[in-house]
Structures are given as structure tokens and as C-alpha cells.
Automatic annotation (TrEMBL):
Leader sequence residues: none
EC identifiers of the protein: 3.1.4.-
Record's protein name: Phosphodiesterase
Molecular functions (GO terms): 3',5'-cyclic-AMP phosphodiesterase activity; metal ion binding
Lineage top rank: taxon: Eukaryota
Cofactor mode of binding and number, as noted: Binds 2 divalent metal cations per subunit. Site 1 may preferentially bind zinc ions, while site 2 has a preference for magnesium and/or manganese ions.
Catalytic machinery residues: H476
Domain PAS: 138-209
Pathway recorded for this protein: Purine metabolism; 3',5'-cyclic AMP degradation; AMP from 3',5'-cyclic AMP: step 1/1
EC top class named in words: hydrolase
Organism, scientific name: Sander lucioperca
Length: 743
């Protein structure tokens, strides 16, 4: 039911101002609700009589100020309060021995002055009880329309028991309501003029959830048959099942028979859940010139020979439905509903009954899309990024691999091993591991030879990229970039990956890993959108950081020939390389996490398993351009969040760093009055083991299971298992810290 509704009107009744009343006032302002405040029962009743609020919130915590129950009775005594929702704010600690909650106050809110808690409560009320009451009010108007309609209307239950007929039906058919209500429709006499199988055809159609329209002979109470144009529409209700059938019957005469038959042919088996548009019926509605042009354009669109693949799929399913038994047809209906969503590979996130750590990770990483009114701009200065750094003077002298200090060279000796300790390299290089590790890995993969650039240019490029990482970030700094680069290089050496990718893919992957978080501010996309940052505005609140990382990387690279590693490659090769780098950096955005993983599993892992089972060649799957893109996306995604698959000490170190960065964001959100997107990451209350368990359960396990099935990574999966058990052990001991206390 789509009806226009005015903004929610809220009446707050609090004897005095406190943090709880302020919380609801702020929530009303944020939700653009119309808010009134009353301090006494008298003023509250007077205000209610004037404005008839949708929602009344009464302070029931302190009886010394006023009698909340008496006020509620007074409001309920007003005739217009029938559809008003009343909520009582009660004390946090209510003893079981307390008297029963008064029946008039149907809802209660346990005091919680947190502004977002108040806002969430108002949203739940708006979309729950208030909306239900609004529909009840609207129902009166709708029944009035039914009563006044000149068309005969009959409503039956899913069991085809008659539940309503309007006066027009009584007038046309000669029955009174009392003679029909509660009767099964099969008990009403039928006309012999209909074809024997017509009723079976109608029932078969409407039970599939499809609308039926056609000519039907009904028998009046006096025994006469009357020819009618009948449209029967199934109504989906509780549980997503058909709960009612609405039949609209119009007697036919010679003037409207021809038009009626034409309409019937065009819409006889229209599926109510498909929302399809029939061009023939559309073009018959208007006579003015502009209307005809629009209808002509619509007809041309429908007659185009260019058809999207998804349209072909839907048409095939529609055709299959017509001859399918009901269980299959219902299943195909569900398939069609899924196909019409915009994000086919992304799961739907709920908001209730979830683990709070998972819920906050989903929200904090911007996995749950916010509606327009959920964003709030900072009232203070907008959050800005630092400007790109210049290359520090002490780093400008290009050095070759042979000039690397012995201590650093020794630290990097086992960089080809998964258990390589990036934290040791961070210490040895004075927090500049990316340049040194980059030089060694890029040399091992022959990147300079591929790009036809001098080693000095590569060195300068690595230095300026590293200089644009924020060393003040506890997690998103150049050490994280070096860690992701190391993981990327490790994955590129796996046999299945090497079979899939070309040299240009390998170079793109290494460069993308190096730049994937350049100039990261240590805050999430959700924070930047809420703070109204320049980049959130620039990138329309979509993949803000990832877009910035990719764009800035190319700006830095191409603005100075001394560090332009792309200077000597051909234009076409550069365009291919650039596109691959951008695609991989954007793949690290977590809103597309499940889409990338599910596409990888369905497009690569499952077909590979089927081919291998039959002993067939897998080369065609591995090397197709589309699948190479999926492999590269999966590779950098796994490299980016591989911390839980590292040796335990490294896993613990990274967990501490990311937690500290989230703590700092929560602190800043509170200081600036922004929505706290990850409330569980409060440094005073957060359980780091719980947060790691949730992260592994929700994001890591399925993704690395899929990646392991493709690339064969038993050592990573063993680390993952060990680390999960470690965090689980801490959590079972009710510990919130990174490590157990010393014995």
C-alpha cells in the first residue's frame, strides 16, 4: 500500500530537561520529525488536542513529577487518539516485584540517553507500530472507496471463503452481504454458460500468484446469467504467501464488449509481482500528441532487437512457468524476484539479532547502504586529507639493491616465505619497509624490465608512494602496504595463479598492492561520509577511499618524470595496465566483498571442480579475460585482509593495530558529534577477541576456503585455524585483551 504520509509528529512529555529528553529531541531533529515538548500533563493534553500526534513519549521514570498513567488515560479518552502510539520511558533497573506495567502504555523504552539509541528507537517505531496505525487509518478511506465503487467487488480468503462484497455487488447480483459472508465461493450457484474447464483454468492461474482477467458468466440470485468482465488479483500477505483474492466484476454490454476483449487478450495472465508494462494497452490510453509520442517511443523500445542477457533469462523463466506445476512455478517466482535485485552477488544484511561486533563491522566498513537521511554532516571543520607529500630530501638518492644495508638485506632473506616477519623489517628500516621490500620483490618479478624503466626511477617511485602513507596511522601505514605487497607476491607464485595470469597482470597486481591504501587517513568510508569530507563529496559517498587511492597513485606517478614508472611503455599497454590497477584497488572496497567472493566461486571454483572431476582441460576457464579479472580481484582482496592467516604473533600484532585505529575513530566521532559507526570499538569496553572472531567468521573463512581451493594454501589455513582457536580461548575466559595475563 503506497500512500502519502506527512512527517512523523512526536510529542515528548518530560517534566524537566535531561539527557534523555535531549536525546529524543536530537533524534527527532535528525529524522526530520515534527517534535513538540510538554512539561506538564495539562500542556501535553492541550498540545495533543491541537496537533493529534502520531507518537507520544511519556517520562514514566519519576512519579513525583506527574502521573504518567493518568495522562495516558486522558489521551486515550480523546476520540482521535485511537491510532496514536504511546511509549513510556522507564527506569533501567526494574525489579521483578514491581506491579504490572499499565495496559494503556502498550510500549516502553528502557532509559538510554545515547542519541543514536533514541534515533534507532524512533525509526523502529516509525516503520513498525506507527506505520501499522497509519495503515489502519487509511483502511477507513479505502473501505469508503470500495463501498462507493460502481464495480462489483468481492474479496475471498486463500481458502476462497467470501469475506467481503460491496453494495454494487449486492445490487448487481441480488444477494445481501449476510447471505454471502463466510460462505465458500463454490457454494454460490454457478452459470452453465461457462466452459467446463474455465474454473480450473482460473484457479490454476491465480494460485500461482498471477492475475487473471477474462469474460465470465455469473448466476444472479434470481437464476439469470450475467456476462461480466472479471479481473481476479491474488494479494500476497503474511509469510509471503497468497492470503486473499480480490475480484472486480464489471457487467458487459454491447458498447464495451469489443474494448474489453482487447484488454483481456493483452493482460490475461499478467504476473502481479513482475510489474510488467503492456505496450498495446499503454498506447490506447491517450489521444494527445505528446502522449502518442511517448507511447510510440515505448513501443519502439519494446520492439528493439538488442536485448540484455538478464531480460532473456527472465523471458525464458516466464515461459517455463506457464507449463510448470505450482511448486515449481512458485520457486521460479522467487528466482525472478532475486534476479530483479540490483546486487545479485551481495547478501542482504539484517540489523536485528546479529552479533554486535559483526553488525558494527558491517556498518563500519560501509557494507550496509545508508539511506539519505542517515548521513549527518559535522558542524565543525570538514575532515580533510593531507596534501600529497614531497619526497623527503634524505630519501631522494636512488640506491640499487646492492646498496641495501646488510641488516635490512638479512631481514629480507626469507621474504619469499609466507611466515616472513614484516614487523622486523619495519623496525630495521625505521618504518620504511615498503621501499626496500618493494625493490626486492619488483626485481624478482622483473618489473623494471617489463616497464622499461631504470631501477632508479622505480626506487624514486617507491619512496614517494611510501612518503604518502601516513606513518601516524597505527594500521593503514606503509607497513600494511608492504604486508599486502608481500602476500600478493606470495600468491603470484602459486602454480594455479601463474597458469591464470599474464606478466602484465602480475605487474598490475604488484603495483596495485603497493598503492592500494596510499594517503589513507586512518578512518573508514562511513566516517568520511558522515563528516562530509571533500573526498566523500567528490566521489558521491561511493568507494571514497578506494577511488582516492587509485587516483592519487596515478597523480603522484605521472607528475614527475623522476618517478614515472609508466613513462616508457606503449599507450595501449599503459591503458591496459592502468585499468587493471584501478580495478584491483577498487576491489578492496568492502561493499563488494561478497559479490567478488561469490562470483569467484560460481565462475571459477565450481566449473574448475566439474572439469577436473571429468578429467577435462581447465585452461579455457583459467585464461579467459573475465576470469583473469576475478582472479586478480580475489588475489588482492585476500592479500589485503590476510592478517588472520599469518603466524600467531603477527596476527596478534595486526589485530592490536587495527583495533587501535578503530578506537581512535570512535573517540573522534564522539568528539565531533558524529554517528558512532562501530560502537563496539570503544577502547573502554571492546573485546578484541570477540571482534576478531566475528571478523574471521563473517569475512575471512569463506573467502580463504575459496582461495585455498583455487591456489592450494594449506599453511595459511592452518594458521587461520590456530588463530581462531587462540581468540576463541581468550573469549571463553572472558578476556578482552590481545593476550592472556602473565601467569
Amino acid at each position: 500500500m503506497k500512500l502519502f504520509k506527512d512527517p512523523l509528529q512526536v510529542l515528548l512529555v518530560f517534566a524537566k530537561e535531561d539527557s534523555q529528553s535531549n536525546g529524543f529531541c536530537w533524534a527527532c531533529e535528525k529524522g526530520n520529525f515534527r517534535c513538540s515538548m510538554a512539561r506538564t500533563p495539562e500542556s501535553a493534553l492541550e498540545c495533543f488536542l491541537e496537533k493529534h500526534h502520531d507518537l507520544v513519549i511519556i517520562d514514566h521514570r519519576h512519579s513525583r513529577h506527574f502521573d504518567a498513567e493518568a495522562l495516558c488515560r486522558s489521551i486515550r479518552a480523546v476520540n482521535s487518539s485511537e491510532n496514536t502510539v504511546i511509549v513510556a520511558v522507564v527506569k533501567r533497573y526494574v525489579q521483578l516485584a514491581d506491579p504490572p506495567f499499565p495496559f494503556l502504555l502498550l510500549l516502553r523504552y528502557v532509559e538510554n540517553a545515547n542519541m543514536m539509541a533514541c534515533y534507532n528507537e524512533l525509526l523502529q517505531l516509525e516503520h513498525g507500530e506507527v506505520r501499522a496505525q497509519f495503515k489502519l487509518r487509511a483502511g477507513n478511506a479505502i473501505f469508503t472507496a470500495l463501498e462507493q465503487s460502481q464495480e462489483a467487488i468481492e474479496i475471498t480468503s486463500e481458502d476462497q471463503v467470501i469475506q467481503y462484497v460491496n453494495p454494487a455487488y449486492e445490487s448487481i447480483m441480488g444477494y445481501q452481504q449476510g447471505e454471502l459472508i463466510g460462505k465458500e465461493i463454490m457454494e454460490v450457484p454457478k452459470s452453465e454458460k461457462n466452459k467446463p474447464d474455465l474454473l480450473e483454468t482460473i484457479n490454476s492461474c491465480i494460485r500461482k500468484g498471477k492475475e487473471w482477467q477474462g469474460i465470465y458468466y455469473a448466476k444472479k440470485k434470481n437464476g439469470d446469467s450475467i456476462q461480466q468482465n472479471v479481473k481476479i488479483t491474488p494479494v500476497i500477505g503474511q509469510g509471503g504467501k497468497i492470503r486473499h483474492y480480490v475480484s472486480i466484476n464489471r457487467p458487459l454490454n454491447d458498447n464495451n464488449k469489443v474494448r474489453c476483449v482487447s484488454n483481456i487478450q493483452s493482460s490475461k495472465h499478467k504476473d502481479r509481482r513482475k510489474g510488467s508494462l503492456d505496450v498495446r494497452s499503454t498506447t490506447s490510453r491517450g489521444s494527445d500528441g505528446s502522449s502518442q509520442r511517448r507511447h510510440s517511443s515505448m513501443a519502439r523500445i519494446h520492439s528493439m532487437t538488442i536485448e540484455a542477457p538478464i531480460t532473456k533469462v527472465i523471458n525464458i523463466i516466464n515461459a517455463a512457468q506457464e507449463s510448470s506445476p505450482m511448486p515449481v512455478a512458485e520457486a521460479l517466482d522467487r528466482v525472478l524476484e532475486i534476479l530483479r535485485t540490483t546486487e545479485l552477488y551481495s547478501p542482504q544484511f539484517g540489523t536485528k539479532d546479529e552479533d554486535p561486533h559483526t553488525n558494527d563491522l558491517v556498518g563500519g566498513m560501509a557494507l550496509r547502504r545508508l539511506s539519505g537521511n542517515e548521513y549527518i554532516l559535522a558542524t565543525k571543520q570538514l575532515y580533510l586529507f593531507s596534501k600529497p607529500h614531497h619526497i623527503p630530501s634524505h630519501l631522494t638518492t636512488p640506491l640499487s639493491l646492492n646498496d641495501i644495508p646488510p641488516r635490512i638485506a638479512e631481514t629480507m632473506e626469507n621474504e619469499e616465505s609466507w611466515d616472513f616477519d614484516i614487523v622486523n623489517l619495519e623496525a630495521a628500516t625505521m618504518r620504511r619497509p615498503l621501499t626496500y621490500l618493494g625493490m626486492k620483490i619488483f626485481s624478482r618479478f622483473g618489473v623494471c624490465e617489463f616497464l622499461n624503466c631504470p631501477e632508479a626511477t622505480l626506487r624514486s617511485w617507491l619512496q614517494v608512494i611510501e612518503a604518502n602513507y601516513h606513518s601516524s596511522n597505527s594500521y593503514h601505514n606503509s607497513s600494511h602496504a608492504a604486508d599486502v605487497l608481500h602476500a600478493t607476491a606470495y600468491f603470484l607464485c602459486k602454480e594455479r595463479v601463474k597458469q591464470s595470469l599474464d606478466p602484465i597482470d602480475e605487474v598490475a597486481a604488484l603495483i596495485a598492492a603497493t598503492v592500494h591504501d596510499v594517503d589513507h587517513p586512518g578512518r573508514t568510508n562511513s566516517f568520511l561520509c558522515n563528516a562530509g569530507s571533500e573526498l566523500a563529496i567528490l566521489y558521491n559517498d561511493t568507494a571514497v577511499l578506494e577511488s582516492h587511492h587509485a587516483a592519487l597513485a596515478f597523480q603522484i606517478t605521472t607528475r614527475d618524470d623522476k618517478c614515472n614508472i609508466f613513462k616508457n611503455i606503449e599507450r595501449n599497454e599503459y591503458r591496459t595496465l592502468r585499468q587493471a590497477i584501478i580495478d584491483m584497488v577498487l576491489a578492496t572496497e568492502m561493499t563488494k566483498h561478497f559479490e567478488h567472493v561469490n562470483k569467484f566461486v560460481n565462475s571459477i571454483n565450481k566449473p574448475l571442480a566439474a572439469l577436473e572431476e571429468n578429467g577435462e582441460s581447465v585452461k579455457s576457464i583459467l585464461t579467459s579475460p573475465e576470469n583473469r579479472i576475478l582472479v586478480k580481484r580475489m588475489l588482492i582482496k585476500c592479500a589485503d585482509i590476510s592478517n588472520p592467516c599469518r603466524p600467531q604473533e603477527l596476527c596478534i600484532e595486526w589485530a592490536g593495530r587495527i583495533s587501535e585505529e578503530y578506537f581512535a575513530q570512535t573517540d573522534e566521532e564522539k568528539r565531533q558529534g558524529l554517528p558512532v559507526v562501530m560502537p563496539v570499538f570503544d577502547r573502554n569496553t571492546c573485546s578484541i577477541p570477540k571482534s576478531q572472531i566475528s571478523f574471521i567468521d563473517y569475512f575471512i573463512t569463506d573467502m580463504f576456503d575459496a582461495w585455498d581451493a583455487f591456489a592450494d594454501l594449506p599453511n595459511l589455513m592452518q594458521h587461520l585455524d590456530n588463530n581462531f582457536k587462540y581468540w576463541k580461548g581468550l573469549d571463553e575466559r572472558k578476556l578482552h585483551s590481545l593476550r592472556p595475563p602473565p601467569e
